[in-house]
Design a protein that fits this description.
Layout (H helix, E strand, L loop, with lengths): L6 E3 L2 E3 L2 E3 L9 H9 L3 E5 L22 H27 L4 E7 L5 H11 L6 E5 L6 H8 L2 E6 L2 H10 L11 E4 L6 E3 L13 H14 L7 E4 L20 E5 L13 H7 L7 E4 L7 E5 L2 H11 L1 E3 L10 E5 L4 E5 L1 H12 L4 E4 L4 E5 L1 H12 L33 H10 L3 H5 L26 H10 L2
Parallel strand pairs: 3-11, 4-5, 5-6, 6-7, 7-8, 8-10, 10-11
Antiparallel strand pairs: 1-2, 9-13, 12-13, 14-18, 15-16, 17-18
């Protein structure tokens, strides 16, 4: 394997190894601090991170507000305090080595407000902001305000070109790097566009080469590109290292840091990672953000798949083949199905899926009475964790804090499930909650490094990455 040399990033020389940010308490100050101490770039998540009381006990994020707006304000306060807590932990553990980055999602609720308050109170502690999940045009404005480097996450040269022309050219000197996230292989929310086929992965090399070509047009010859998604052994990327066509390249590891001693995930989650097989990570579009995302195909995802398959179109009057009457809800309001769909509905009801829930697309999905009650309760308890949520119809920007559309029961409360899996260390929690993961997670079971259930420290993982297989 080629020697891995330091790279200039954010004004200093660091190892070209970046810890990928994973939201809601998964990439925290401890994991980020140890990664930076090893000489790379540690990343903590500023998305509803954990904070602690004077005795070191985690403060549960519970909500007492009567309205969504009141609960949203509670969430913002939790987010700011949690991010500050994790930033300070990372900084202390790093001991001045490497770099500490804060990761945010542009489409998270109050993203700009939260990161602005955090940077105001953590001056000199955070050295960079990483941001994806949307088109974060104002990221460069925030960076310029605090004289901090910024690292947009994009999935195409076209997306970066749009960001540069609209905003980033105004803060060119603070662009610390551009994260190219492979939309077919990365875990969590992915940047697949409507023009790309989720079933036909594309080779990342020509896409990254196209990105570098655009960057060079703007004088960004030496600004690093950070390859994210699908990175495991660096020897598999030797053609990328010291490649004059690509220029300076670093590599981001999101999935592998999950399985370290410093990783905050529970033992049940770590054991599940060691048992995954190829194909166990599922690219789906169930997220309330509307983005594609990659997650382990566990019971939680399987229930969502089945829920969406038990779906029929309806009309409010007789149109075409929609002639079969069906009563929806307690008042049995009449809608019209096709005769074939009416027969399918009868079979679902016989199997216990008796509750018909309307979607924004004039369809009905069928769930059990218990699942319907859970969906309604989660929608009512919304605290505005996203800028816009199709599951609850929350919108932080629109009048009345609503998207104006029906809440969509085909999705789920992402805040609830990510908090549960982060803090409930049981096999049941791992099976019944959203478990984000990159598609290479099955390699934990086949990589000799993890033989006999070995879980390395962050330092051991970084050393292994640098030395090869």
């Amino acid at each position: 394997m080629k020697a891995i040399n330091a790279i200039r990033m954010g004004g200093v020389d660091v190892l070209p190894l970046v810890e990928g940010g994973k939201g809601v308490s998964i990439s925290n100050g401890i994991s980020a601090g140890h990664w930076a101490a090893a000489g790379g770039v540690g990343t903590f998540s500023a998305v509803n991170a954990d904070s602690f009381d004077d005795q070191g006990r985690r403060i549960p994020q519970t909500y007492s507000g009567r309205t969504r707006t009141e609960r949203h304000e509670e969430l913002v306060r939790y987010a700011i305090q949690g991010a500050l807590t994790q930033a300070r932990r990372a900084y202390e553990l790093a001991g001045g080595k490497g770099r500490i980055h804060a990761n945010i999602l542009w489409e998270m609720g109050a993203a700009e407000r939260i990161i602005t308050d955090v940077l105001e109170q953590a001056k000199g502690i955070i050295s960079g902001i990483t941001c994806g999940a949307g088109m974060p045009y104002r990221l460069s404005d925030i960076a310029a305000r605090f004289n901090i480097y910024y690292y947009p996450i994009i999935s195409s040269a076209r997306a970066f070109n749009a960001l540069w022309k609209r905003a980033y050219h105004k803060a060119a000197t603070l662009l610390g790097g551009v994260v190219y996230e492979d939309p077919w292989l990365a875990g969590g929310h992915n940047g697949l566009s409507n023009s790309e086929d989720p079933t036909r992965p594309e080779d990342p090399y020509p896409r990254v080469a196209a990105l570098r070509k655009v960057m060079r047009e703007y004088g960004l010859h030496d600004t690093p590109i950070i390859m994210a998604g699908g990175v495991w052994w660096l020897e598999e990327w030797q053609d990328w290292i010291d490649n004059p066509e690509l220029g300076p390249v670093a590599f981001q590891f999101g999935t592998r840091p999950l399985l370290t001693k410093e990783s905050p995930i529970g033992d049940a989650w770590k054991k599940r990672l060691l048992s995954l097989s190829p194909g166990d990570v599922f690219l789906n579009r169930f997220s309330p953000t509307g983005f594609y995302s990659s997650a382990v195909n566990n019971g939680f995802i399987q229930e969502l798949r089945e829920r969406n398959e038990r779906q029929v179109a309806y009309t409010t009057e007789v149109i075409g083949e929609h002639v079969a009457e069906y009563g929806v809800g307690p008042r049995k309001r009449i809608v019209f199905l096709t005769p074939a769909d009416r027969a399918r509905v009868q079979a679902w009801e016989a199997a216990g899926f008796t509750e018909a829930l309307r979607t924004p697309d004039s369809t009905l999905i069928f769930v059990t009475r218990e699942k319907a009650a859970e969906i309604y309760a989660d929608q009512v308890a919304c605290m505005g964790c996203l800028s816009a949520c199709r599951f609850s119809n929350w919108s932080q920007h629109d009048e009345g804090h609503t998207t104006g559309k029906k809440a969509d029961p085909r999705s789920f409360c992402i805040q609830k499930t990510l908090q549960d899996i982060a803090h409930d260390d049981t096999p049941d929690a791992v099976e019944k909650n959203l478990m984000f993961s990159g598609h290479n997670a099955y390699r934990f079971a086949t990589d000799p490094f993890y033989s006999n259930g070995f879980v390395p420290t962050v330092r051991q993982l970084v050393d292994r990455i640098l030395t090869g297989r």
